[in-house]
Each structure stands twice: as C-alpha cells, then as structure tokens.
Amino acid sequence: MPDFSIGVDLGGTNLRIAAVSADGRMLDKIALSTRIDLGCDQVVSDMCDAIFRLTAQYRGGGSFLGAGIGAPGIIDFDAGVVRKSANLPGWTGYPVRAELERRLNARVFLDNDAHVAGLGEKWLGAGRDVDNMAMITLGTGIGGCLVLNGKAFPGMSGMSGEFGHITIEPEGIPCGCGNRGCAERYASASAIARMAREAIESGEAPTLAKAAASGAEFTPKAVYDLAMQGDAAAQRIFRSFGRALGMMLADIVNVLNLDMYVLGGGVAAGWDAFAPAMFEELRSRSVVYAATAPADPLAKKEGASEGKKTIITRAILGGDAGLFGAARLPAL
Amino acid sequence: MPDFSIGVDLGGTNLRIAAVSADGRMLDKIALSTRIDLGCDQVVSDMCDAIFRLTAQYRGGGSFLGAGIGAPGIIDFDAGVVRKSANLPGWTGYPVRAELERRLNARVFLDNDAHVAGLGEKWLGAGRDVDNMAMITLGTGIGGCLVLNGKAFPGMSGMSGEFGHITIEPEGIPCGCGNRGCAERYASASAIARMAREAIESGEAPTLAKAAASGAEFTPKAVYDLAMQGDAAAQRIFRSFGRALGMMLADIVNVLNLDMYVLGGGVAAGWDAFAPAMFEELRSRSVVYAATAPADPLAKKEGASEGKKTIITRAILGGDAGLFGAARLPAL
Fold first, then answer.
1. Considering the entire predicted model, what is its pTM?
2. Phi, psi of A166 (to 5 degrees)
C-alpha cells in the first residue's frame, strides 16, 4: 500500500471526506451533511471523526501524509483561516487549520474550493500534461484557479483566479462584490435561473412557463434539457451564457496566453448548449486566441497534433476534482 | 570592468543601442534612425555597426555576453522572428535573431518591446524588490509584461500581457485587433488625441479649440499641461482615461492578485491627471483590489509598511527601461 492523504470538500451544505493514495487513487469516500447551525467546533469534530475512521483503515499500508481542505469563499492560505464566506457563516477568523492540526496531529492545509478543484484537474484530470492552465469552475458563481509552471499560483494573498468578477458589462447587473456587470452575473447557475425567469415574464418562453407552472425548479439541467430538445427560449439562454463566458475568457486569454483553460463545476455539463457561442465570442474578442486557436475547437482532440494551440476544454474529474486536489496539498 | 551585454530598442522610427554592465550600469548609448525603407538587411547592418563600436570599446574590461532586442508587435521569442508588427512593415518572417547571431557571433534574443521594458523595471526599477509584477506600457497603444516568481512569464507563445486588448466597452470603438471596446482605444496616446478632437467638435473645449487653431498637435503632453492648468475639458479627458485604465486594471488584479503593477511608457507621465479617477474606478470594480488596497494609494510610499498590499505605481527607468531589459536577456 502506498502513502495516502485526506481530501476534504467543506461546503455550506455537504461535507465530503476522502482518502486518496499518493499515486492518485480514490481509496474511500465519506459523505456527510455540514451541520453548520451547530457551530464550527461541531463541524470540525464531524470532520475529524471521519478522518480518524479513514486513517485507521489505511494507515496499516502506508504513511498518512496529512489533510487538505477546500472551502468556499476567500481563504487565507498562509494563516489557515476563512476570511470571508457567504456559505460558511460564522467561520470568519475561526482557526480551522490550527484546530485540525491539533486534533489530528498531522499537517493540514486550507485552501479555496476552486483552487483545489484546479489542482485536482492538473494532477489527474484534463490538465495533467500541461504546465500552464487555468480552471474555471461554473457553479452558483464562478470560481477560478491558476496553475503556472506546474504549480498553483495563489497570488499575493491567495486571491488569484477571481475570474467571475471580470467586468463584461460596465453598466450591468450589480454584483455582491460591489462591482456591476461581473461575468458571474451572466454565466453561472444563478444567471441561468434569472434568464429563465425573465424569459417567462417576457411571454416569449411558453415551454419554460409551462414547466414553471408545474412547479419545476429552474436548475441549469432543466433549462439545458429543454435547449437540447430544441426549445428556442432555452437555447437563447445558453447562447447568452456562452457569449458571456466567451467575453470573460477573451480577457483571461489576452492576459495570460496559457496552454489550457479547463471548464468545470456543475454548469459545465451544459457544454453542448453553450460552447459554440462561447468559441464564437472568444475568437472575435481575443487577438491572442485568434492567433492560437485550433482549427476545430469543438473537436474531441482539440489541437493535440497542431503544436502550440490554445485549448479550451471540459474538466474530467467531475465533483471529485476538489477532493483529489485537496488531498494533493499535503502530498506536494 | 565587469561583463557587459548589448540592449537594442528597435522601433519603427528610432533605433537605440546600449552597452549595459552585468551589474546594471548604462555604459554607453547610441541613438540612430531606423532606416526602415532601406529594408531589414540595412537596418540589421546599422545595428551591427553600432554593436561592434560598443563591443570594441568595452570588451577590454569584461566578457561580451550577447545582445537582446526589443521590437514592437507580436514576436516569436523561440524562433527569433517578428510575427506581426504594424511598425516594422516587411519584417514578418525575417530571421532577425539568426542573422544577428551570424554577424555578431554571439547569443542574441528577440522579444516584444513591452516585455523587455517590464524586465528592465523588474531588474533595476520600480519592481526590483517584488517577485510578482505586471508592467503596463502606455504609449500609442498599451503593451504589457508579466513577471511571475521572479521570472518573465511569456505565455505559451510569447503573447501574454496583451492588456490593451482587454474589453472594457463591449459595444465600443472598433480596434485593429478585430475586437470592439479594447482598453487601448480609451487609455493611450491615440485615445487622448481622439478625445481632444471630439471635445473640440462638441464645442465644449474652447481652450483646446484655440490650441488646435494655432496648429498645435494634440500630444498627451499638451492636453496634460492644459489639465494641470485647470482646463475643464482637458481634465475630463484625463478622468475618462483614468477610468478606462481602472477598468482594465480591475480585470488584471482580479485574475492575478500580484504584488505590484507598474505603469510606464510616455503617457504614464500624465499620472497626476489620471491616477485619482483610475484608483476610484479600480477600487469600485475589483473585489481583490478593495481587499488589499493601501490606505492611501496615491501616497509616495504606498503601503510599504502595511504588509501585503497591492501596489500600483509609476515606472522609474523612463525610456531606458527597454534598453536595460533587452540587455538583461543574454545575462540571465
């Protein structure tokens, strides 16, 4: 048995703990609820109980290298604390890392959830063969991660990769960050729900209106299914989503000229519905992308045999990217 | 005498060649015209004659390490050729580096002019104490350079740092790159000239109109002088310039979270007229900047004693940044 580490996905609703071998195999996974209303100490106790169960089981084989935790919001990596998180109310300033290190008597790392998802895709996923990549996580909002010269690039204070707050509409929709027209107001799960509501109110989306009347929720999946069935209103929503994403990507590509940009998170599953509009917008807006685009960016093996081409592709580890990436932190 | 290298600033109009010691002193400088109409071979001959004069003079002391050349446009660093340059017509595909290496019998590097200016500021200028910085060069257009973990970050194909083509106005002014609303259409020397013309045509800029009638050219300097003398129309132009720059910087800061952003190039001399609007826009649009801004970003020693703060500051090497940076290439 090889050495192993623990990866934790600490969400506002779900708490997942995994044992991952140093050579990248998922050994075991425990899924719990985050009992956020019982306070930080209780959540940390739940986390430690699960970690002890896993380490007891796998310690016989190899060494336990430590634990990595991915959490939503602004994380102070150096201090090991949550600085600001809408999904973890009451956690600001709580010494997550120090408390876990004390209880586990092991090395612990705390990082942003989008950062660890990117590390996972770099280690074992879409980016495993490239040294310079960005991961864009499309969820309720938009998260991001930069991997440069083969290593995570957290920035001066761990806040790099805030792609979702790139301005794509100077006088656009107000964002919680204080800006207007941020990309995540136009290309996220919440943006799809907003566009669906607006389409119904405009009277131009009969199928969506019928679905709404029957009490269906506007998950991105529901709108995606309608788009793939040919519903014009649902298709317009995903085209708009794709254009917004293309505008955001154009800025990132012009700034960084990376080898690869990986789209992950739940909403990336809508790829077939948004990718054509995304590539069209990206090509028309980014001089760097236009100069380095593969002949057919939608082809499965994009540009693989064309030399230095900019690859925009889907993540392949799904919801486990963050568990793998978090488990990678103590193994690095 | 220490070792030395040659730095070349190959512009569409001016050709400057400098001998720089390995410890960063400017030993000598030769200024010529770029005889672009006589063809690449003649320009390369002029360049080599000047280099031979300098190397003959300084070779007695230390070793000649080689030459670095900064050129405008899209440069293929690996191949040592100009890929696309509006200012160097006819140079596309000409083997600049190979030809110079043959004639000089020395190591030669060819890079983008904005990249070498950034390397100069990192080596000896505003960025000498930081490992992660971007340089933004404000000239006719906007150039850029990324220095990450202490080293130039050229990107996959040497095209990183195209900050001037970040979209700040989705339906804005068409740009030569194919996009609309690029930052350099609103925050460059050519943008100032356009805004001055528009202000005169609107009838709301009597002083500018008078200056124009007397045949004065609308250099950024002339408009800047009027702004500092209190002319309202000229002040509006620089405020607009500052807001555009702030929007562009907000995107860069959100993506990278670097320690320092250095503004250079001729138009950076207008700092006093545009910086207040730039900082106001930047703070309102970038969540990362707002979280890391020094208390008084306009103070001379911005944030130096405040720990990890985002510093936006002026370049200090002026027009020689590119010569120093180019000379640094063979010495690295």
1. 0.94
2. -65, 135
